[in-house]
Write a structure and sequence with these properties.
- It contains 21 helices and 34 strands.
- The radius of gyration is 45 Å and the shape is elongated.
- Helix 1 runs antiparallel to helix 2, helix 11 runs parallel beside helix 16 and helix 12 runs antiparallel to helix 16.
- About 6% of the residues have low confidence.
- A six-stranded antiparallel beta sheet has the order 7-6-11-10-9-8.
- It is an alpha+beta fold.
- The chain folds into five domains: 108 residues, Heat Shock Protein 90 (2-Layer Sandwich); 103 residues, PAS domain (Beta-Lactamase, 2-Layer Sandwich), CATH 3.30.450; 105 residues, Beta-Lactamase (2-Layer Sandwich), CATH 3.30.450.40; 155 residues, GAF domain (Beta-Lactamase); 228 residues, 4-Layer Sandwich (Phosphatase 2c, domain 1), CATH 3.60.40.
């Protein structure tokens, strides 16, 4: 028989879900059915969500009271949207399927439920049966045989102890004297902590001082008696205040084995009809979360906050996870709050007036204490209840539910929420550790790949580009790299990258207009708010100008570009120093477009990357400086330009091996000695680097000086040999081909050459024959007494003289070597070519002889006598 009914309609908006929960809660509370309110609210929330969110129609909620229980019906106006049948268990689907999760909860929590279809409506109903309890009682237990009743002494003594606001004993009744042996006047005024033996490990749970501050607390501890022994007691604490407003705590204490006198009966879990039929026990975790539970951590956390909000009929809920050092809590899931702004925000564990996050807390009015829960600042929430998530006594997180009205929650709701938190803490921690393990594996792979890429280049610009490209989009949405040339220089914006290439120019323009971040060497990431503030100001000015409220702009950049740039840097921006060799060489700036905070794991990964990138960038700088010095020195060891020799074509090709960061030992020269006479030389100093460069410079300048003093070829080389030997340990042996050239009036040219240990020069005649143009003689820098001689060679018109260093003749491919014979074979194909063409063909043949890059420097000097022009 229906004894009462209540009905309400709700519009298809998200806020209607909370309104429906309040309607059902108020209705059942008014009927005195507090025992089934939680289950009714959870089921109503799911079904109304299906109607107003998924079906997109208005929802009608009908509550019917009967003698046996309560029937609640939720109807929507979308009958075509079918739901799974109760009898087809396999078709229930996953918990995230539309409609499936609500019906799974109906099957788990309701005694009966069903779905009814009409041409215009679809109605889902469920019935919750009332527990069988005597009328007029809040809680009751069954009748038990005497042998099953709790044990107690002949007389049960209940110690009543009142603790003042300072934690000192204010009153001590007679039962307390009998239980613990202290007269009242001996303990009055002493702190309770002097007597209490609290089973508490510091930093891992609620201490006695904290418990005395709670509005209600219940549990076990010990009291040291007058005989020195600890009496185990069960206590119930109630926080009260006197007429003057002074708070105190009333403690009721009994012997621990008599705890049934004070212990509040645990609220039993709702029956699971399906499990009961199968003879299986109901898992409280699955009842709260739903079965099956989400596999991923984010899904589990999001469903947890939604369930917690529904269970306490809140307007918002949030869940924070502790960092590895347990000093901060990180927002990981929320509902009813601006999650994009708060996600991954971090707050200290011990923040707020209410003390520690390691214990449950009820905040009656946040308007009175705005800083109590920093996370809820500016959200409109007035009251909140928070409970810790603990695993083996270790703080792993915090769960909270908030409402927009003050004084919504009491200690009873805190205990219910703590009960739920205890059921999910282990599952959350297991999922968190799994995610952390995956992140660390991914971070390790990322850093290994980053190190390989950074080690693969010594080019500064390429290093900057790699640094930015590796961070986008793995770590951030946009990135900017600042570099510092030296300690006296200001940071310079060197590279900017955004995952959307169309926004790079606007971002670069914005960052160029604001002062760069301070080059602070302190490790770790720090927040930089300047880009966001500058972008918002620029967007505001542009918007005002577009509305005619500001001064007209002379530059028409467009409101779209400005607003897009503001959105690009509108989120959190962090700066990491690039420190190498105890010096700040730049800053790595990472940013997000939204208010979502950077995760701690991402910041730690970015810090590791910044250290590797800083060293790679500094190595590239040092390499660039060394290369510039080497190239400058190499240029100084070669003639700036070759003179024009009348009647003789001259071509020189020089190729340094390596990457340009070492000075080669090969050199060449062609210079005028006196009218009509020219000196030429091509040589190779043993080795490379500064020592070889010193001998190269000595040889080239000594040749010019001695030749212009009138010394002949042998005398020039003998004196150069002495100068090299005078260098002592710094000396290097030198192979050198030196000669003097006299163009003749008949079109020929006379050469006098000395070949000191150098590859022999080759003469190409017009008929294609090739022959050595000199004989080998001892190299320089080895023996003191040298007896050198010069040989005279006449080049007829059309003849070519080819001089090379051993980098040409010793070109290798496996066991093959080009050699003198191979060079001669190539030269035979050069008949009729100009000197430039001859040198180019020789170089091309050398390069094609092997697939690898040349490992030795090469110098090619070609001289050709073209002959007289016929008139």
């Amino acid at each position: 028989m229906i004894t009462a009914r209540a009905a309400a309609s709700f519009e298809p908006v998200g806020r209607s879900v909370a309104s429906a929960r309040s309607f059902v809660r108020d209705s059942l509370q008014g009927w005195g059915f507090a025992d089934i309110i939680d289950d009714a609210v959870v089921l109503t929330s799911e079904l109304v969500t299906n109607a107003v969110v998924h079906a997109g129609t208005a929802a009608e909620v009908l509550c019917l009271r009967s003698d046996d229980g309560v029937r609640i019906e939720v109807a929507d106006r979308y009958p075509e949207r079918e739901l799974p049948l109760q009898s087809a268990a396999v078709s229930m689907g996953g918990p995230d399927r539309e409609g499936g999760r609500g019906l799974q909860l109906c099957a788990a929590l309701a005694g009966h439920w069903g779905v009814e279809y009409t041409p215009t409506h679809k109605r889902v109903w469920f019935q919750l049966d009332l527990p069988e309890r005597p009328v007029g009682t809040r809680a009751a237990g069954p009748c038990l045989p005497a042998e099953l009743l709790p044990l107690a002494d002949g007389r049960v003594r209940v110690a009543v102890v009142q603790i003042d606001r300072n934690g000192s004993i204010g009153s001590w009744n007679e039962d307390a004297e009998e239980l613990f042996g202290y007269p009242g006047d001996h303990v009055t005024g002493k702190p309770l902590t002097d007597l209490a033996a609290w089973p508490h490990t510091p930093g891992t749970g609620t201490g006695i001082a904290e418990a005395l501050q709670l509005s209600r607390w219940e549990g076990s501890y010990g009291i040291r008696g007058a005989n020195g022994r600890v009496v185990p007691v069960y206590a119930s604490h109630l926080r009260v205040r006197d007429t003057g407003g002074a708070p105190s705590t009333v403690c009721l204490l009994v012997r621990d084995h008599e705890r049934a006198v004070l212990q509040t009966p645990l609220r039993g879990a709702a029956p699971d009809s399906t499990a009961a039929q199968d003879g299986q026990a109901t898992d409280p975790f699955e009842v709260f979360i739903g079965s099956p539970a989400p596999d991923d951590l984010d899904g589990l956390l999001q469903r947890t906050v939604e369930r917690a909000r529904d269970m306490l009929d809140g307007d918002a809920a949030f869940l924070l996870l502790a960092t590895d050092d347990e000093t901060e809590l990180e927002v990981r899931a929320s509902t009813g709050l601006p999650s994009a702004r708060q996600r991954f925000a971090r707050v200290p564990v011990e923040a707020g007036r209410y003390g520690s996050a390691r214990m449950p807390a009820v905040h009656d009015d946040l308007a009175a204490v705005p800083s109590a829960v920093p996370l809820l600042g500016g959200t409109g929430m007035r009251s909140v209840v928070t409970v810790p998530l603990k695993v083996e006594g270790r703080l792993t997180g915090s769960l909270g539910v908030a409402a927009e009205v003050p004084s919504r929650y009491s200690n009873e709701e805190a205990l219910r929420l703590q009960f739920a938190a205890d059921r999910i803490a282990l599952a959350v921690e297991s999922a968190r550790l799994g995610e952390l393990q995956r992140l660390r594996r991914g971070s390790l792979s990322f850093l290994v790949e980053a190190s390989d890429l950074l080690a693969g280049t010594l080019d500064r610009d390429q290093t900057l580009a790699l640094m930015a490209q590796m961070t986008i989009p793995t770590l951030a949405t946009w990135c900017a790299v600042y570099t510092i040339a030296d300690q006296a220089s200001e940071p310079y914006l060197s590279y900017v990258l955004h995952e959307d290439e169309e926004r790079i120019d606007g971002l670069k323009a914005l960052l160029s207009k604001i002062p760069p971040p301070e080059p602070i060497p302190t490790p770790g990431a720090r927040v930089w708010s300047a880009p966001s503030e500058a972008a918002h100001q620029a967007a505001l000015r542009t918007s005002m100008r577009s509305l005619g409220l500001g001064e007209p702009s002379t530059v028409s950049s467009g409101i779209g570009t400005t607003l897009a740039t503001a959105a690009t840097v509108g989120g959190e921006t962090v700066v990491l120093p690039l420190v190498a060799r105890n010096r700040v060489i730049g800053m790595l700036t990472l940013g997000r477009p939204t208010d979502e905070h950077f995760r701690q794991e991402i910041l730690e990964l970015a810090e590791d990357l910044s250290r590797r990138a800083a060293l790679a960038l500094d190595n590239a700088r040092l390499y660039s400086e060394r290369t510039a010095i080497s190239q400058s020195l190499q240029r100084s060891l070669l003639p700036p330009e070759l003179p024009q020799v009348d009647g003789v074509e001259v071509e020189v090709i020089y190729r340094a091996a390596g990457e340009g960061n070492e000075v080669g030992g090969d050199f060449y020269d062609l210079f005028p000695i006196r009218d009509g006479a020219y000196g030429f030389a091509i040589g190779d100093v043993c080795g490379t680097g500064p020592e070889a460069a010193a001998v190269t410079g000595l040889a080239r300048h000594a040749l010019r000086l001695l030749a212009r003093e009138g010394f002949g070829g042998p005398a020039v080389l003998e004196r150069l040999n002495s100068a090299i030997l005078d260098e002592g340990a710094r000396s290097r042996f030198l192979t050198l081909l030196y000669g003097e050239l006299w163009p003749q009036d008949d079109g020929s040219a006379v050469l006098k050459v000395v070949c000191a240990g150098h590859p022999l020069p080759l003469r190409l005649r017009q008929d294609g024959t090739v022959e050595p143009a000199a004989e080998p003689q001892p190299l320089l820098g080895v023996m003191d007494d040298l007896e050198l001689y010069e040989q005279t060679v006449t080049l007829d018109p059309g003849d070519v003289l080819l001089c090379v260093t051993d980098g040409v003749t010793e070109r290798r491919e496996g066991t093959r070597m080009l050699g003198d014979d191979g060079l001669a074979d190539v030269l035979t194909t050069c008949t009729g070519l100009t000197a430039g063409a001859v040198a180019a063909r020789i170089l091309r043949a050398v390069e094609r002889f092997a697939s690898d890059a040349p490992s030795d420097d090469m110098a090619i000097l070609a001289m050709r006598v073209p002959g007289l022009l016929k008139e």
